[in-house]
Design goal:
Layout: H1 16-22, H2 34-69, H3 78-122, H4 127-142, H5 146-174, H6 179-226
Helix pairs in contact: 1-3, 2-3, 3-4, 4-5
Length: 227
């Protein structure tokens, strides 16, 4: 039969759009790229921080307001009064914590998605990527307040994005390479590995083909003599 054909492995993405599309695809091990996983982790962490930031003050304030407003109420015992105060605080913790949680999580998710998308598309990590992501996210969150709110959100986001991006870049540089440099290196190493495997399989296929051809050439004269 004909020897099997092995397709040459595809080279790493060369254009910005190719890199962006790869950002949301799983690899051979059904894993998402590290950048995508980091976006999800940051959003989850931001949600927890927002819940604590908004929930704890509301908890203590509601608990204190309950104690001050229930001086004339009768409770079965001291434990009953403490539990009632805690339940009032817990309700406020859940309500106001959730309000802050989803807002912070959404802000962090959008900011990281835009900044990561810019870094992947441009194939480099710069402060400008984070400043642009902060400006876009801030303006998006304040656009319902009109032009004044849009401008305020733009400025706030830019001011937030510059130090946040600088801190992230400094952390990555301490590790020896930025996340984008690491991603490019892993792409190149994976491509070289696949290319070497492909060339090895191709060499084996060519050897098998030559062996089969030589065998057929030897068998043809023998068949002619027998006839």
């Amino acid at each position: 039969g004909a020897p099997p054909q092995f397709g040459r492995p595809a080279p790493p993405p060369q254009t910005g759009w190719e890199r962006l599309s790869e950002l949301w695809r799983r690899d051979e091990r059904q894993r998402y790229p590290e950048e995508t996983v980091n976006i999800a982790k940051a959003a989850f962490t931001g949600g927890l921080v927002g819940w604590v930031y908004g929930g704890l003050p509301a908890f203590y304030q509601a608990r204190r307001a309950f104690i001050e407003g229930s001086q004339g109420e009768l409770f079965q015992n001291r434990a009953d009064a403490v539990q009632s105060a805690h339940r009032a605080g817990l309700r406020s913790f859940i309500r106001y914590g959730w309000r802050w949680s989803w807002r912070v999580a959404a802000f962090v998710a959008i900011f990281n998605t835009v900044s990561t998308g810019l870094s992947v598309y441009r194939n480099k990590t710069t402060i400008g990527n984070f400043a642009s992501a902060g400006a876009f996210t801030g303006a998006l969150f304040r656009m319902h307040l009109g032009l004044q709110g849009l401008a305020g959100g733009f400025i706030f986001g830019t001011v937030f994005g510059i130090p946040a991006g600088g801190l992230l870049m400094m952390t990555q540089n301490l590790a020896g390479e930025t996340l984008q440099e690491k991603r490019n290196r892993e792409r190149r190493e994976l491509y070289e590995q696949k290319l070497a495997e492909w060339q090895s399989r191709l060499s084996v296929t060519e050897i098998l083909g030559e062996t089969e051809s030589n065998t057929q050439e030897r068998l043809e004269p023998e068949g002619a003599r027998e006839s």
